[in-house]
Structure formats: C-alpha cells, structure tokens
C-alpha cells in the first residue's frame, strides 16, 4: 500500500464511492461515519491522511480539524476537507483551523489524486527524518531547542508579465512578519542573495502551465530543491494543477492569486520547511558524529573500514595499486602518565593535524585506536608509500607540541607500518590492515621512530611488481 487514508463522512454512499476510488489507486482505506469515530480511528489506527466531510453528523469540518490538531500524536496528520459547495468563507475558516486543503463536491479526481500523492510524499519524508532524529536522541545526540524564529524570506514569482501582484503583496506584508519580494523567473534561478524559504509561483496569466518549467528547474537545482513551493493557477487549469503537485509543489491554489488564502497557507509551509531543515541538519550532524572522532575531527574506525572495502574493490576492478599506512605514537602512555591526559589529548590533536596537512586530498586519514592512525592511499605504489611514511615520520619528529596550562613544549615520535595491496591477488582489506599492523610492530621492535614495510610483493610507482625491502 502507498498510504493509509481515513475517510470520515456521514453519508454511506459518499464513503463507498471514495473507498472504491482510493482502493483502486492502491491506498489502504479506513472509514468513519462521524467526527468522534474518526478521531478515535486516528488515535488507534494512525492513518497517514484524513479525508473528511465538512458536514459530519456530530461536528463541522472546522471543529474536526481543531480537535485533531490538539492531539499530540496527530497534530501533523494531513487533512483534506470536502465541502458540498464552493464557499470561500467556509474555505478560509477551514484553512485557519488547520486543514491542508478544502475540495468542493463533485470532487475533481485528477486534482484529488495529485494532492494525495503530494501530501503523503511530504508526510513520509518527514516521518523518516523524525525517525532518524528519534534515534539520535536515544543515542544522546539531541540538539538544543531552536531559538527565536526569524521572519522568512518569501519570493513571489509571476511567470507572465500580465499578472498584477503589487496590491496583493502589500496585503500580505501587512498581515505577516515575513519578507516578501517579487522577482522574475530568471532572478529566481540565478540568486545572488540568500535563498528564499518559500517560492510562490503565480501562473494565472494567459498562457496556462507556463510556470511548470520554472517549478521543474527549482526542484532540480541543488541550491533550491529544499525550498517550499506554492503553485498558484486558475480554476480552469486542472491538468496543470495536478502536474504542479506531481512535479514537487508543496501547496496549491487553484482559484488564482488570493492574498487572504496565502496568508493562511504560508505559515504552515514555512513551519514544515523549517522542521524538515532542522531534522535534516540533525541527521547530518548525527551521521558526522557517528563516523568522526570527537577529539581530532578525523574519521573513526566505523567509517574507515567500509572506505577500505570500497577502495579495495575499485583497486581490484581497475587493476590499480593502493597502500595502507598504520602509524602509532611512541611511548604515548608515558606522556599521559607524566603530563596528564589533557596533554595526551593535545598531542593527539596536533599529530592528527600534521598528518592531515601532509597528505593528498584523495588520501584518507582516520583515528582507529587510542594513539593509532590509519592512512589509506589510492593509486600509490611502493616508493610513493615509503616517501609519504618518511615525510610523516619526520614532520612529527621535528615538531613539538605546546602543553596546555604552563606553555611548555614536548616532542613525540611515531612508528609506521606500510602495506601494499598485492597485485593480482584478491585480498580483503582487513588482511591488508593486518599486514600493516604486523609491519608496525616490526618498526616498534626495531627501536621505534621507524618505518617498516610488510614483507610481500606489492606495486612500484610505475605499476610493476616490486619486492619489499628487508
């Protein structure tokens, strides 16, 4: 099923007809004969969307929306109200009560299906983000609550010159705290200022559907695709209205540019957009936290091992070399014991910085243990790997770290094990990492502050097989 929809209507015939249409569109359908029954179904069944009549036997559609929005677990459930006749006043009051849209009977099935797809798509995307945010909170990675909300930036974009908007924009400015700006489609696509949170595409001119191209361009632009889009069209443009929703419009006005209706719809779009942005940012922060070492800012083992697997697959598939360097600070325990863990942390942070600054952009550096660092180098043969290892050894040996507190300086050294992928041999990255680890221990046993190469055949810099030096 593509979604669970609750139909609330006191007329059995209306429910049956709508159930047949929605079932044919592969929706799971629930039914309720009154507002109270519908609210109970919302609480128990948790539908993805509610399609309710405005003339329920026990309450109005507006009362139903008010009660639904007061339910903590259902406050964000999309609601479409169905009105027996087009009445602008009731439409405005229903939107003010929290309805996402108000459709008139007989229902235009083309627009209804497009509206259902649009609202359910947005609902499922937000539910996924909320699920990931809940996981982050369970892991103790919750963000502090957002501060004071600033006014939103809203761009009004008429797609044809014969659409007068000045008076309508002035009316919205007088009622909402947000910043409104009229711009051309070219200005919308080539912004040199902060991106608006909402684009209102006004497509009510003589050429119907002229705004669909702009909508498509906004949705495919990497910088603009997360903005909310409200599409405004004429009542006789039903095909264009449905297309706008399927192309990614978040909301739709089908009766022309109506400032009063936009005043009711825009705050909801701004709120949803900001919630999605916050959840998306939290998810990205959580992902970074999951794969990043908090002390040094380097990647951790959780990230490094899957990266090695991808690097190994690419090297094997393209017959290209790669190398691993495993570096371990010498006598690091003595630094902690003699100077304290704050000093040890300062040393680790500084060593991580020096390693990072002396590698190529394509190279990966990760902290995979207490004082152990991994460097993965694609397209790297024997000589290049040894040169890099020597450069890292020298830059660490020749530098000192300023200690926190007294400003004294301390030096440190590093031992490095080097392992090269075997040519023509399928080898798991864990095996290569194990060979680098054994080479590291060989460097430690030889007196520390040294480099050791795993004793096997790898690649030279010309792509030829090369024997390891003893």
Quick overview of this protein structure:
With 470 residues, the protein is an alpha/beta fold.
Please give the share of residues in helix: 40-55%
CATH topology of the largest domain: Rossmann fold
Considering the protein shown, what is the CATH homologous superfamily of the largest domain? Answer: Response regulator
CATH architecture of the largest domain: 3-Layer(aba) Sandwich
* Largest sheet, strands/sense/barrel: 5 strands, parallel
Going across the biggest sheet, name each strand in turn: 2-1-3-4-5
SS strand fraction? 15-25%
Number of domains: 3
Give the overall silhouette. elongated
Give an overview in words.
The protein has 470 residues and is α/β, with parallel strands linked by helices. The protein folds into three domains: 1-106, Response regulator (Rossmann fold, 3-Layer(aba) Sandwich); 108-142 and 149-291, 3-Layer(aba) Sandwich (Rossmann fold); 301-466, Alpha-Beta Plaits (2-Layer Sandwich), CATH 3.30.70. The chain has helices spanning 12-24, 35-45, 61-69, 88-97, 109-138, 166-175, 185-189, 212-220, 238-246, 259-291, 301-318, 332-339, 341-357, 382-397, 429-445; strands spanning 4-8, 28-32, 49-53, 79-83, 101-104, 153-158, 179-182, 198-202, 228-232, 251-253, 322-329, 364-367, 372-378, 400-402, 409-411, 414-420, 451-453, 458-459, 465-466. Strand 4 (79-83), helix 4 and strand 5 (101-104) form a beta-alpha-beta unit. The relative contact order is 0.07. This is diguanylate cyclase. Its EC number is 2.7.7.65. InterPro entries: CheY-like_superfamily, Diguanylate_Cyclase, GGDEF_dom, Nucleotide_cyclase, Rev_trsase/Diguanyl_cyclase, Sig_transdc_resp-reg_receiver.
């Amino acid at each position: 099923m593509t979604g669970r929809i609750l139909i609330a209507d006191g007329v059995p015939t209306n429910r049956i007809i709508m159930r047949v249409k929605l079932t044919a569109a592969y929706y799971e359908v629930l039914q309720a004969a009154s507002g109270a029954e519908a609210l109970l179904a919302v609480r128990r069944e948790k539908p993805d969307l509610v399609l309710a009549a405005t003339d329920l036997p026990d309450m109005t559609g507006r009362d139903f929306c008010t009660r639904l929005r007061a339910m903590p677990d259902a406050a964000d459930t999309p609601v479409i109200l169905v009105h027996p006749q087009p009445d602008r006043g009731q439409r405005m009051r229903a939107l003010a009560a929290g309805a996402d849209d108000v459709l008139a009977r007989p229902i235009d099935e083309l627009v209804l299906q497009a509206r259902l797809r649009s609202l359910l798509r947005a609902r499922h995307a937000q539910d996924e983000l909320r699920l990931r945010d809940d996981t982050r909170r369970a892991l103790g990675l919750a963000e502090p609550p957002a501060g004071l909300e600033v006014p939103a930036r809203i761009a009004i974009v008429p797609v044809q010159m014969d659409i007068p908007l000045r008076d309508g924009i002035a009316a919205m400015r007088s009622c909402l705290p947000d910043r409104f700006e009229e711009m051309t489609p070219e200005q919308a696509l080539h912004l040199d200022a902060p991106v608006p949170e909402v684009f209102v595409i006004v497509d009510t001119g003589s050429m119907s559907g002229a705004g669909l191209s702009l909508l498509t361009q906004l949705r495919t632009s990497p910088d603009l695709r997360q903005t909310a889009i409200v599409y405004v069209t004429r009542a006789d443009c039903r095909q264009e209205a449905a297309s706008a929703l399927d192309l990614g419009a978040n909301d739709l006005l089908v009766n022309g540019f109506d400032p009063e209706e936009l005043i009711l719809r825009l705050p909801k779009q701004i709120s949803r957009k900001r919630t999605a942005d916050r959840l998306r940012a939290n998810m990205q922060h959580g992902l970074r936290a999951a794969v990043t070492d908090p002390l040094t800012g380097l990647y951790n083992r959780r990230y490094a091992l899957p990266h090695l697997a991808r690097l190994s697959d690419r090297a094997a598939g393209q017959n290209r070399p790669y190398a691993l360097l495993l570096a371990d600070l010498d006598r690091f325990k003595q630094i902690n014991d003699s100077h304290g863990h704050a000093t040890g942390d300062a040393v680790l942070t500084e060593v991580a910085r020096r390693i990072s600054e002396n590698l190529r952009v394509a190279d990966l550096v990760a902290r995979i243990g207490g004082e152990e660092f991994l460097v993965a180098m694609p397209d790297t043969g024997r000589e290049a790997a040894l040169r890099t290892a020597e450069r890292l050894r020298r830059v660490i040996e020749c530098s000192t770290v300023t200690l926190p507190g007294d400003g004294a300086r301390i030096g440190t050294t590093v031992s490095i094990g080097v392992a090269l992928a075997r040519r023509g041999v399928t080898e798991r990255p864990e095996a290569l990492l194990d060979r680098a680890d054994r080479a590291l221990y060989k460097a430690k046993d030889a007196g520390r502050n040294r480099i050791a190469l795993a004793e096997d055949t790898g690649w030279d810099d010309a792509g030829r097989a090369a024997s390891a030096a003893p």
